[in-house]
Structure formats: structure tokens, C-alpha cells
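Sample 3 of the quickstart, ligand flavin mononucleotide:
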Amino acid sequence: MNIIIYGSHYGTAKKYAEELARRICYELKSYEDIRDIDCYSTIIYIGSLYAGGVLGMKKTFEKMKDCGNKRIIIATVGLADPTNEKNTDNIKNAMKKQLPEEIYDSAHIFHLRGGIDYSKLNLKHKVMMGLLYRKIKSLPEEKKTEEEKAMIKTYKQRVDFVDYECLYQIIQDI
Ligand SMILES: Cc1cc2nc3c(=O)[nH]c(=O)nc-3n(C[C@H](O)[C@H](O)[C@H](O)COP(=O)(O)O)c2cc1C
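Result:
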């Protein structure tokens, strides 16, 4: 059995997961609805990035007893530009800390670009982004990472970088 599992607060990662499920005809579930993960042989996890963490990923893979014969694909969805290697290195380094070593090592990892609509954020996320914005803004320009510059550029806006064509790399991998 094969599945696509998604972790999404505002729907961007969910949209990617739905489109991929439509194209490859896999079962689709939110990480919140996963009880048993060991019954699947191919697991595609699509999760959005929140403060460096992939939403629901740790919780989901904690349920896996043995990753031996499984095909694991993980795709992150974030605001940071995934064509920038520094951004993807940062994401991967953070993922290493959220996953057991054998799962991280066997997973095929991809990075997709999401979007944000500040008017839709809940209070906690608005406050988090406000604090982050002020912290980054006060840094000298040469100390700001590309990820941080992108965050400043999109602050308080509505941006949508969702590109379904990027799913092709995952389909090819399968
Ligand atoms: C509080 C907060 C923290 C975020 N942290 C990151 C981050 O660390 N890296 C990143 O690339 N994007 C970050 N983002 C942007 C989200 O990953 C992006 O909006 C994504 O498309 C949200 O996916 P969703 O609609 O599936 O929840 C953050 C957004 C919020 C609101």
C-alpha cells in the first residue's frame, strides 16, 4: 500500500499533496489521521515548514517501527527559495534533528515553495512572524541569510509560489 501524508496549517502543503495524489493515485491523509504507518510500503510525506520544523513529520515517523523495506520520500513546503542551496542545506540540517538517523538516511528529500497570506494567520503565528521580522530587520545586511531576506520581502503580504510542475521531480523519483 502507498500513501501521501501531509502536514499543513493553511492549505499550501495540502494542495501539493492533493495534486500529487490525483496524479499518481495514492491514498491521501493528514498526519493527524495516521494511526499505523507500518502497513505502507511507499510513504510520501509533504509537510510545511514552521520555524525550521516540518509540520507533523517527527510525530508521524515516530510511529514507524522498521524503515527497512520502505520507500520514503519527504518534501518540505516553505517560503524560502528552494533553488538556493544554502536554504535547502539549512532545511536538511534541521530535518536531521527531527528524524531518526536511519529514516533520514533512507529518505529521498525534496523542497517545494509554498506561500503565505498574513491576513489568514492565527494570532500565535502573527506574533511569531512579527518577532522574527523585528529580529531580522535589526541585523546588518551582510549577516542576513537569503531565507531571512525573503521573509522581510514578503512580510505582511499575500504571496503564492505554489508550482505543481515541481511535483514532477517527485513523480520521476517514484
Ligand atoms: C510562524 C511561521 C513560521 C514559518 N517558518 C518558516 C521557515 O522556517 N522556513 C520557511 O521556508 N517558511 C516558513 N514559514 C512559511 C510557511 O512554511 C509557508 O507559509 C507554507 O506555505 C505554509 O504551509 P501551509 O499553508 O501548508 O501551512 C513560516 C510561516 C509561519 C506563519
